[in-house]
Amino acid sequence: MATDLATLRSPARTAHREVPHTVSPGLWTLAWRRLRSDRVGMVSLAIVVVFIVMMILSGTGLIASDWAREVGVNYAPPSFIGPEQATGPLATPEIGAQTQGAAGAPLEFKSTVVDPLGDVISELKGERPKPAVEAPPPASSAAEEEKSVDPLADVMADIRKGKGKAESAAVEDRKATLPLGGDKWGRDVLKKTIKGSETSIFVGLAAAVLATALGTLFGAIAGYYGKWVDDFFNWFYSVFSSIPDLLLILSVAAVLQRKGTMTIVLILGLTGWTGVFRLMRAEYLKHKGREYVQAADAIGASNGRRMFLHIFPNVSHVVLVQLSILVVAFIKAEVILSFLGFGVPVDVVSWGSMLNEAQNELILGKWWQLAAAGTAMAILVTAFSLFTDALRDALDPKLKGRIRA
Amino acid sequence: MTAYIIRRIWQMIPTMLGVVLLVFFLFNWVGGDPAYVLAGKISNQEQIDNIRRQLGVDQPFYVQLGIFIKQILTGDFGASWSTNERVSHILVTRLGPSLTVLIPLLVLSTTISIALALAVAYVRGSLTDRMVMIVSTIGLSISILVYIIVFQYVFAYKLGWFPVQGWGDSFTENLVLYASLPILIGLTVSIAPNLRLYRTFVLDEINQDYVRTARAKGVSENRIMWLHVLRNASIPIITHLMAALPGLLLGSFLIERFFSIPGIGREVILAVERSDFPVIKAITVYVAFATMATNLLADLTYKAVDPRVQLK
Hints:
Chain A has helices at 2-15, 27-36, 39-59, 93-98, 107-112, 118-127, 137-140, 153-170, 189-225, 227-242, 245-255, 261-271, 274-287, 291-298, 303-340, 351-363, 368-395, 397-403.
């Protein structure tokens, strides 16, 4: 009757304080022990922790807060390659012209181009001596125009170009190379990647927490109460799960015209709860008739208490595994959404928006931004997936035996 | 069997209504008055008023819902807000290109994944098995965007083996010329996760008693793997395949967008970019219905493959 002891633990302990008893290790201790012996799991956990620490440091402004500063020359190559020999014309001018203006072209060409936003830029320059990464308010209404990729990209490009011209006189010592290269405006790709990982990981974690919380709550209520409540939530579930995830996400993105980090968190969180719901409902169905729940009922625990204080700790390992599966899925989804321009706003950098810029850069032969964002994401996602596998094995060793037989 | 199908379709009705309500709630309530969206694209006030009247914006909600349900049943969603093309025409014409890419992709990806899964499961635990698993885990972690960007750059732009993008009028030309690189990318992206999953399905079967029995009576290893094991492992594989089917239609939307293939997926992205609500509404509702239909189809196939399954 080990389960009954759990509910009586606190009074029992005070009564028999002097009786020496060895506490047998609980689920979490055992799981931690198993996880620690899993070398792949521990390495991937370390990598995940490094990324999360990086996210926190970047979020609090300790590192990479000056990512928007244009410290290098345009398209500064990575240091391990060395500075570019010919900084003059583009290798493939005809394609360069197709991709968003002549940002890579020599400076003297720029001055001949009539800049329709010249007034706006001079205003901006006067008002904001610091890097103006915010889009001017009138331009944001143009976001609904029917342009592919990012409708504000050209505006931003013009602003930055103008700003770059102004700064290039002031800042003479632009570096010829940067650790991981520079982007179109000479910003440090390394710092951009760190800042981008902050956005992507934050969105992944926050949305996963929201989705898991919703799925757990719905699953708990449906599984615990049963009857018509269960029928209702099952109906709700089948409605949400019969629309393919991406279509649902895109529909919500189409309707919510506001762009922002919190908007994506909401979109992903509100649409991604179905998988957690199904599992949690099954777990609650299984647990609600168990003896320890009956015991809790007998001592007068309320429904809410039984659901979240008694049953929840016993199913929380399922929640944890689902949470980490969702984090990976949402990081991938955020990258795609931001790439398409439905994700983070233009003044926020994420891996998806970096890949979007990198798409045009690659044709010019500037591969480093693509490599940096792609590799950073691949490392995190690999580590997170392997960690999830290790976590599942550690929490549910029966499964491991079955699959790896 | 017929009674079962009829009952299942009957049970689908509440879910269908739910989908309709959800889409209606999103676009008519959260989306707000379409005049705000339309103002950016149509300058003619009369036209805007016309669309508002068609949608019944000034009417009570139940009238608007009635209009929406009628639209779904008749398949007449009016005209696109951006291109003025009939929505029904958009749906019909965009399906072909999507399927031209999807069907070969699905067939190839499933065949290759199953063959590889059988092979690596057969040598489970060996170096080959572990290497394949590591490679597919890493392959799985790289964003599909990186695959598309790099493949398009290397194979189409640099090496010139394929056209960079485009779509023609003749089916053969499309399939051979324009669809081959998208299919190749689709294969690269889809084989890794499929292989990992199918391998576990095969592993679940490979240690069963019937395999030992077959081996004991002298059945060749090939026959055991391809006939005995595969037939049993195919049950979860079919379920997975069927469940993934409607998503695939959209899953290739990035590929369609990059290669300018005029398919359903690209249409969804264009519609979201242009706030073209009628098109998104129509695609969402019909894809949801298609999902329910394939779920039913999956259960029926399940029964056909495994006689032990009892349909209730």
